[in-house]
Write a structure and sequence with these properties.
Number of helices: 11
Strand content: 25-35%
Radius of gyration: 24 Å
Number of strands: 36
Shape: globular
Distance between the termini: 28 Å
Strand order of the largest sheet: 29-30-32-31-33-34-35-36
């Protein structure tokens, strides 16, 4: 709006002067709203409206919205009780992911301990009962491993499960009589088995696809049928080499395999009346929705635009709400009834350029890469290889402010779905085991070779960057292939694999044992071969590292060990430490970090032959 005299307000002037890349981070964002099963007008969502990501309650009947949490480092982990009476949220300390559940009345009021009697821990799942007084709480600690408790209001929590290996709460049945647990008691943290127990912990049924075969197959809980007395459990399986849903009737002991003729991974959730399933189909970095009728086995497409559906839910009226975006278009929460479900006020995010698909032959098969470049630009360009985390994750045709910022500054951006990525079949995901890090670098190298020989990328101006596992691969790549990269930028990385193992949260220890085949004492050569610290003395590229001092996933001590080795030989490097955990939920902090990364790249590409990152390069500040 303008001031009363018609002039532009200072706020408008500031926004007008703000570069597009910063607007993308500052523009208000909302998550897909969760809604209460027995009070569907009550919803919970996450927004950055205040400049920090926090939980918000939304009463759809009145349109009223209110902020639920308000913490310096933000809050995103929250659950709405089925009756809509309470909002549960996880209270950790400055992003360290170690804490307790608290709850607050939906209409507002004081927070209270949600599970008195349970000490702080890392969370391992939560399921809330429809009676308003029952919760199944998963916990993980270094001392106890995984424990699951039944917590009822006014009573002491009851231990119903304990094991040293990682596990988690899957779901609680509609009537509260059955509890589904995902566990890895067999020692393979990448492939869970399922157990269904009663509230007293007594086992009712087991399903384990890891037994008796040479293939490693996983199962996952997708949810109990939302019908009173119904013992059907929707699960995901990998029996045909990819994720697909089936219906397991616990009482009858039957399995109904849907056998959907869809390539790629398929997930599902129940429609509220239990007669059908909302199918989410992901294939080659894009996704689409379907409705599957359980009685007729008919599969009907739910219309969504081309791009990525990051979440979807079926409402009681049969409509579907979904969070959609593409690389070129910012995210929006839409409904199949044609409406925009949530449209936060404030500045709108600028779009970016579309993504182009590239397929490259690699040592383990065809590699899918996603490419963005400035509109109208021709190569060779300074090129950023932005490597995704996980490792069991994948880049997609979804909106991402980080890559868009690089494109704004004149860079081409390439994202590689290396072996270890999801969405390309179980064999592709599982291929990284035992040659951890090294096998992913082979795929990145194949795409880098294509980028240079195709004329897109300038070989003298190549940046390797990523966060979390992508940060790990950045540091590993700079040491294993020191002459292949011009600049390295690693956010919250694994830098010293052995120290990281000892300091990280217990669930990640289990994952590392699975990936590498044991502990550092049992397989020292594998840890050594996969650790960036092993190759740190070979690094010749300027390195920028950012790290959260409270990070339980990529702890700070192992990063400090790596940095000390760089310092000891006078290697060119910069380190930025900030007061948060595995990344920040504060918008200003995120913008600061991007600004620092852009400036580091600009300074270290200056003077490189052919370098021209354009006038969009920004100063630190």
């Amino acid at each position: 709006m303008t001031e009363s005299n018609g002039s532009v307000s200072p706020d408008q002037q500031q926004r007008a002067a703000m570069p597009d890349w910063e607007k993308r981070f500052r523009a208000p964002r909302v998550s897909l709203p969760d809604w209460a099963e027995d009070a569907p007008d009550r919803s919970l969502f996450v927004s950055n409206a205040t400049g920090t990501y926090e939980l918000y309650a939304w009463d759809r009947s009145t349109g009223a919205q209110r902020q639920v949490t308000d913490r310096p480092n933000g809050t995103t982990d929250g659950v709405l009780s089925p009756d809509g009476a309470f909002i549960w949220w996880f209270d950790d300390k400055d992003g360290d992911e170690f804490g307790v559940w608290r709850r607050q009345p939906f209409d507002g009021g004081a927070d209270e301990p949600a599970t008195p009697g349970l000490d702080p821990s890392y969370p391992a799942g939560l399921a809330l009962g429809r009676d308003g007084r029952t919760a199944v709480v998963g916990r993980s600690t270094d001392e106890e491993g995984t424990t699951i408790h039944l917590a009822r209001s006014g009573a002491e929590p009851v231990l119903i499960y304990r094991h040293r290996e990682s596990a988690g709460v899957g779901d609680l049945s509609h009537d509260g009589a059955l509890i589904a647990i995902e566990h890895t008691e067999h020692g393979d943290a990448m492939h869970s088995a399922l157990r269904v127990v009663r509230p007293d912990g007594a086992t009712v049924a087991e399903l384990d696809d890891t037994k008796g075969g040479t293939e490693e197959l996983g199962l996952e809980v997708l949810g109990f049928a939302p019908v009173e007395g119904d013992t059907r459990l929707l699960i995901g399986h990998q029996r045909r080499g990819r994720w697909e849903p089936l219906v397991w009737d616990i009482t009858a002991g039957t399995e109904t395999d849907l056998s959907l003729d869809l390539p790629g991974d398929v997930s599902a959730e129940w429609y509220p009346d239990g007669t059908g399933l909302l199918i989410v189909h992901s294939f080659e970095a894009r996704s689409e929705l379907f409705r599957y009728d359980l009685a007729s086995a008919a599969l009907e497409r739910v219309a969504t635009p081309p791009g990525m559906v990051s979440g979807a839910t079926a409402r009681p009226d049969g409509s579907v709400e979904y969070l959609w975006s593409s690389a070129a278009e910012p995210p929006a929460v839409r409904s199949t009834d044609g409406s925009v479900v949530l449209d936060p006020p404030g500045m709108k995010s600028p779009g970016s350029v579309p993504v182009e698909d590239v397929w490259v032959e690699g040592p383990g098969g065809r590699i899918h890469a996603l490419v963005q470049k400035p509109a109208g630009a021709s190569g060779p360009l300074p090129t950023v290889f932005e490597i995704h985390g996980g490792p069991t994750w994948h880049d997609s045709d979804a909106f991402a402010a980080g890559p868009a910022a690089w494109v704004d500054h004149g860079y081409a951006v390439i994202r590689v779905n290396y072996r270890g990525s999801t969405g390309y079949g179980r064999a592709w995901t599982d291929a990284l085991k035992h040659r951890v890090g090294l096998i992913e670098l082979e795929d990145i190298a194949a795409v880098r070779e294509w980028a240079v020989t195709s004329g897109l990328a300038d070989p003298a101006r190549l940046i390797l960057t990523g966060g979390s596992w992508g940060g790990y691969l950045t540091l590993l790549g700079l040491g294993v292939e020191p002459r292949s990269w011009t600049v390295g930028i690693a956010a919250v990385p694994v830098a010293d694999y052995v120290t990281a193992y000892y300091d990280e949260m217990e669930a990640l220890k289990a994952m590392d044992r699975t990936l590498l085949g044991g502990t550092p004492e049992e397989v020292p050569a594998r840890f050594e071969a996969s650790s960036p610290l092993t190759y740190v003395d070979d690094v010749r590229t300027p390195v920028y590292i950012s790290a959260g001092v409270n990070d339980p996933r990529c702890p700070i001590r192992q990063i400090d060990n790596y940095v000390k080795r760089l310092e000891a030989r006078g290697a060119v490097h910069e380190v930025y430490r900030y007061d948060a955990g595995h990344g920040s939920l504060v918008v200003d902090e995120r913008i600061k970090q991007v600004r620092l990364e852009l400036d580091f790249a600009r300074r270290h590409l200056e003077g490189v032959q052919g370098a021209d990152t354009g006038s969009g390069a920004v100063p630190v500040g």
